[in-house]
Specification:
Rossmann fold, rod-shaped, seven-stranded mixed β-sheet, Rhopdopsin 7-helix transmembrane proteins, alpha/beta
Length: 851
């Protein structure tokens, strides 16, 4: 009669040294324990099988077979094994862990007899909860446990479970990988799906903290309860209603999934129920799934017809693995009728192929009879794969770690051993606790060519591969390695992804999916946070005047460099045009030609006066003052050329000072001519004393005195704050004004003010003398010339202040040329007309007669 604690699913092989394995292949409901009878194991309902998980046990068997056939690893020592299942149940996990530690026939804790098996180490379990339940027992006996779970138990492994090792990379590498992967694709609006257990809470807590640190928003959190088979369907639907609605109808396109078996199984139920209720296809629910290394597309048998296309294009982390030679051939040799002692294969075969053996007493409603010759490679990949999966590869590596550790222990011990029956050497007497020292320092290359060794935390030091999962219409799939998570890389560059190699879900038409709370803000706009919304949600507002944003989704607009300005779309900076009055541009050429032409006219007038200096009309109009006025006007026309061209220090200093002094001389000459005319008429009256004032001395004194005052003002200007070349970046938005800074604006207006004072005096005096006899009187012409002069310079001030850049310079040049031309024309046109065209009027008789 079978002992009450014996379990139906186990596989045992005797050997000199025993390795234990706890797998997780079956899920079922157990009866309640009542203390009025001896505890026993009894299944209720249907036994649910995870067919793909059977490969974990098969990879274990294959590794043990390899080692036993390899004379260089453990010569003269055979490895045996005991394999049990956890049934995803705490009670059976504890029970089968004790089965591993007890005698061959029954559980007798803490008691050894002659038949006690030499259990050296145990491999398992598949998830952190099972691993923790095993570790609480194994750690008491200091038996090394090598787990192949992705996430370590919640408690501190290195301090509270010193006998615990993991044949997996460190857990935090995946968290870093999630963050770096999301940042590379600029996904900031993502959902998190995890189980409603301690492992799920830890996953959620750490991931939320890292997302917040790197400004990634958690748009949705779906906590999925572990699928319990003693939970009634209505209760399950009620418990998962909110998660189902939020998961399937949400606009969130990217989900990070803690893809352990229980969570994935429940997730499939949620998707199946929603699609049934809403009458839509699963394929139409396009999502991007980013999953932990648990994921291997494993399905329970009742998910046989589940549409796997919803996971098309998913990304997952995976333990780096290579093809193991001979494993596929090993799988092809399996036959459920050949193995003796394998308690797993019968139930696996029936559920995987949906058939029944003829000696089976179960009723699965199947019309097929298992022949034992069914082909494993005919099964869909969701149920079984012929290539070694990542988790199976971890089990395979764990067996080799144990074998090499035992080999290292053998080589470090004395080689004097006794002879047992059959001529073999007696295996050394080893204790499990002795393995720890060698496990922590083990390092070797396995048969797949990978280097295996543990770090100080008892974990592998490798990183993770990033795998893209591609599904096909026949329910098959393939893995495509598209990247790598390297923990040894520089911070921020741990994840390397070939984006071009990724195949996305068909809903995205091979366009990179967007995972944002709202669309990107285009260049020319900046983000403005929405009140009451997460920081990933924002409005897009145009940049203010004078600022740009040249990238998508910029937090703030910024000003262009001083030598650049924003374009009309405010998304790029354009170099400013240099603004100065150049000799090569049309305006500059025009002004130069006009100045030279007026200078030539002035020179011709001066030449005419010099050639006709002895004629009455030249003498009558004060010949010396006329020469001085013409020379000053000639210089006025020429000084306008100083305002054209690239500003230099010398030209900046000469521009306004030369203009001020020369114009002061010209206006002084006019004022002297007017005063001379008045004095001449006053001197003709009988008994007057004004004759002594008539002459060259008064005129020269007026010109010299008035000019010296202006020269003194200019000299003071040059001493206090002289003009200098300057660049104005700000007055014009699109141009850089290169010009002369006046240094002291006050002194500049003092020069203009004094010039205006002279002009006003000259105009007043000429206006008062306008009615004197015309033949000897220039006052009328001087009045008109000064009226024009004053009008030009009064209009100059507002025009000058209202313009910028080269047009400001052009306004001043225009004022110089027009006012100088007015003085030239009004004062000398009529005289030149008589001298050149009416020489008959240029006689003393004619002048006396006209007078």
């Amino acid at each position: 009669m079978t002992h009450p604690f014996q379990v139906p699913h186990k596989n045992i092989q005797r050997g000199d040294l025993i390795i234990g394995l706890i797998t997780s292949q079956f899920n079922c409901i157990f009866d309640e324990i009542y203390f009025h009878e001896y505890p026993k194991m009894k299944f209720f309902g249907e036994l649910i099988v995870m067919p793909k998980n059977y490969q974990h046990a098969l990879s274990f068997l294959f590794a043990v077979k390899e080692i036993n056939q390899n004379p260089t690893i453990l010569p003269n020592t055979s490895l045996g094994f005991h394999i049990y299942d956890s049934y995803f149940n705490s009670r059976t996990t504890f029970q089968n862990t004790l089965n591993l530690l007890s005698s061959w026939e029954r559980i007798v804790p803490n008691f050894k007899c002659d038949k006690q098996k030499n259990m050296m180490t145990v491999i398992g379990g598949l998830d952190s909860e099972i691993s923790l339940q095993m570790a609480t027992v194994l750690d008491l006996y200091k038996i090394p446990q090598i787990a192949y779970c992705v996430f370590s138990p919640v408690m501190s492994v290195e301090t509270q479970l010193p006998s615990f090792y993991r044949i997996m990379p460190r857990e935090e590498f995946q968290y870093v990988g999630f963050v770096q992967l999301l940042l590379q694709f600029q996904w900031t609006w993502v959902g998190i799906i995890t189980g409603e257990d301690d492992e799920g809470e830890k996953f959620l807590r750490i991931l939320n903290q890292m997302f917040s640190q790197y400004r990634i928003c958690t748009a949705l959190i779906a906590k999925i309860p572990n699928l319990s088979y003693n939970l009634d369907l209505l209760g399950f639907l009620r418990h998962t209603k909110i998660a189902s609605i939020s998961l399937t109808t949400s606009k969130v396109k990217v989900f990070v999934l803690n893809a352990n078996l229980q969570t994935v199984a429940c997730l499939k139920w949620l998707i199946y129920i929603y699609t049934m209720l809403e009458d839509i296809t699963q394929t139409s629910m396009g999502k991007v799934w980013i999953m932990t290394a648990h994921w291997d597309f494993s399905s329970q048998t009742f998910h046989r017809d589940f549409d796997i296309h919803i996971f098309h294009g998913a990304l997952s982390f995976a333990v780096p693995s290579n093809e193991v030679l001979g494993f596929t051939k090993f799988l092809q040799s399996l036959n459920p009728k050949l193995p003796k002692g394998d308690g797993f294969i019968r139930d696996f075969w029936e559920q995987a192929f949906n058939c029944l053996f003829s000696y089976s007493n179960e009723d699965m409603g199947s019309i097929y009879t298992c022949t034992g010759h069914e082909k494993l490679d005919s099964l869909p990949g969701t149920l079984f794969e012929m290539g070694m999966t990542g988790q199976s590869y971890s089990v395979y590596s764990a067996v080799h770690v144990i074998a090499h550790t035992l080999h290292k222990m053998y080589t470090s011990r004395p080689k004097h051993r006794g002879i047992v029956e059959g001529g073999r050497q007696e295996p050394p007497s080893l204790q499990p606790w002795q393995l720890h020292f060698f496990l922590r320092s083990i390092s070797f290359n396995n048969t797949a060519g990978n280097t295996v060794y543990f770090d100080e935390n008892g974990e592998l030091t490798t990183g993770y591969d990033i795998v893209n999962w591609i599904t096909f219409s026949n329910q098959s799939f393939s893995r495509v390695k598209v990247g790598r998570m390297d923990p040894q890389a520089l911070p921020g560059s741990e994840v390397i992804v070939d984006k071009e190699a990724i195949t996305w879900h068909r809903m995205f038409n091979q366009v990179l999916p967007l995972a944002l709370c709202n669309d990107y803000c285009s260049p020319g706009n900046s983000k403005k946070r929405k009140e009451g919304e997460p920081f990933c949600c924002y409005d897009c507002v145009p940049c203010p005047d004078g600022k740009i944003s040249d990238q998508k989704d910029m937090n703030d607009c910024f000003k262009c460099p001083e030598d650049q300005y924003p374009d009309k779309n405010q998304d790029q900076c354009i170099p400013k045009i240099v603004n100065f009055l150049s000799f090569s541009e049309t305006l500059g050429i025009t002004i130069v030609c006009l100045a030279l032409f007026l200078s030539l006219i002035t020179a011709l007038v001066l030449g005419t006066f010099i050639r006709n200096q002895n004629t009455p009309i030249v003498k009558a109009n004060n010949r010396e003052l006329s020469y001085s006025l013409l020379i000053s006007l000639l210089l006025c026309f020429l000084c306008s050329l100083l305002f054209i061209g690239w500003p230099q220090t010398m030209t900046c200093c000469l521009r306004q000072t030369a203009f001020g002094i020369i114009f002061s001389v010209a206006v002084s000459c006019i004022m002297a001519k007017t005063i001379t005319v008045i004095l001449a008429f006053m001197a003709t009256k009988p008994g007057t004393r004004m004759k002594k004032w008539v002459g060259k001395r008064l005129a020269s004194s007026l010109i010299l005195g008035c000019s010296l005052i202006q020269a003194s003002i200019c000299a003071m200007w040059l001493c206090i704050a002289p003009p200098f070349p300057d660049v104005d970046m700000h007055s014009l938005a699109e141009e850089i004004i290169v010009g002369c800074n006046e240094g002291s604006v006050t002194m500049f207006y003092c020069v203009l003010g004094y010039l205006g004072l002279l002009a006003a005096v000259s105009f007043t005096v000429a206006f008062l003398a306008r009615k004197l006899p015309g033949s000897f009187n220039e006052a009328k012409f001087i009045t008109f010339s000064m009226l024009l002069f004053c009008s030009v310079w009064l209009s100059f001030v507002p025009s000058y202040l209202s313009t910028k850049g080269k047009y400001m310079v052009a306004v001043e040049i225009f004022s110089i040329l027009v006012s100088s031309a007015g003085l030239l024309g009004f004062n000398f046109f009529s005289k030149c007309y008589i001298i050149i065209l009416r020489p008959g009027l240029n006689s003393k008789d004619q002048l006396i007669r006209r007078a």
